[in-house]
Amino acid sequence: MNESTEMEQHMTSESLPIDAVGFGDSASFTAPEHHRDSASLAARELIRLLHIECPDDAWLARTTFALRRVHEGESLILAGDKFHSLYVVRSGSFKTVYTDFFGSEQVLAFPMASDLIGADGIDCGRYGSTAISLDTSDVVILPLANLARLSNDCSGLESLLYRILSRELVRMQNMAWALGTLGAESRVAAFLLAMSARLGALGYSRSSFNLRMTRQEIGSYLGLKLETVSRAFSSLNSAGIVQVHQRSIDILDVNGLREVVAPAADLVTSVATRTQAKPAQASPAKRPGKIRSPQRTGFSMRQLATV
Questions:
Q1: Which residue has the higher pLDDT, 36 or 91?
Q2: In whole angstroms, what is the distance from residue 17 CA to residue 56 CA?
Q3: Same domain, 158 and 202
Q4: In this structure, are 8 and 145 located in the same domain?
Q5: Residue 70 within a domain
Q6: What is the number of structural domains in the chain?
Q7: What residues are paired with 133 via a beta bridge?
Q8: Average pLDDT, the chain
Q9: Domain range spanning residue 267?
Q10: What whole-number distance in Å separates Cα of residue 36 and Cα of residue 95?
């Protein structure tokens, strides 16, 4: 057990308090480096971070949770380590990685602000994946033992935890949908739409952003080879749908990006077709704007934001 883990298990509400300003803005964390594992966040601010409506109960005012800072490249948790805490990302971003018996790695998710990390350790008592920070990140520590005690006094806390876990389940279901129904170009387009929506919800630009993860990591997450991901980005760039410069992404045609994702026969689902088809040969059903409604496709754009 490392020093940070030992400290987490002994943290109390007597920790140094700080204010949680905004959603995921790392500049709002001003605690000195030597206090990075002793700063705390009020429960009310945690609710706000999670974008969850909750009655203003008394326990929100008297409950705090400790914070931990994780630098780029550092591990927050390691697969196989004993489970002791859940974590909510306050700022920055991570990748969670599963490693099989043969040493092959699979990226499972890219947790960002308000996302949960560590839930895979609840069942067997050990973390099932490794979480590595892609940036200087801050997380809220939710020790399981403390949560169990608090839930006895705070009836609203148990409901809150169920909602957080349910959100993660929906995210996994949506990812299974994407891997099972979408082609390579559509997966990359869906990934960009999801990043756009998630960053927009955090108060950042939906149309212009930098990707913290590499093409290799994106490919592992989407079940694609590096070369396939690179070709998909190049195709989207050539089609004028997005502008790509290394990890910098500018979405120029969001409706065009949605058309690449939409699993309907009367939509343009291939970027290659979009760029090669002549205007005179295009059918009316393929004109921009003729997008099948989310209800008919069975997968809303709001759901897509959680892929």
A1: 91
A2: 20
A3: no
A4: yes
A5: yes
A6: 2
A7: 94
A8: 76
A9: 182-304
A10: 21
Alpha carbons 67 and 51: distance in angstroms, whole number:
18
- Tell me the C-alpha to C-alpha distance, in Å, between residue 7 and each of 15, 68, 84: 11, 10, 12
The better pLDDT of the pair 295, 45 is held by 45
pLDDT of residue 155: 65
Say if residue 139 is in the same domain as residue 199: no
- The answer to whether residues 158 and 186 belong to one domain is no
- Residues 111 and 211 occupy one common structural domain: no
Whether 68 and 116 share a structural domain: yes
Statement: residue 264 has pLDDT above 90 = no
pTM of the shown model: 0.73
Let me know if residue 189 belongs to a domain.
Answer: yes
- Local confidence band at 116 (pLDDT 50, 70, 90 cut-offs): very high
pLDDT tens column, 171-186 = 888 888 888 889 999 9
* Residue 21 bridge partners (DSSP): none
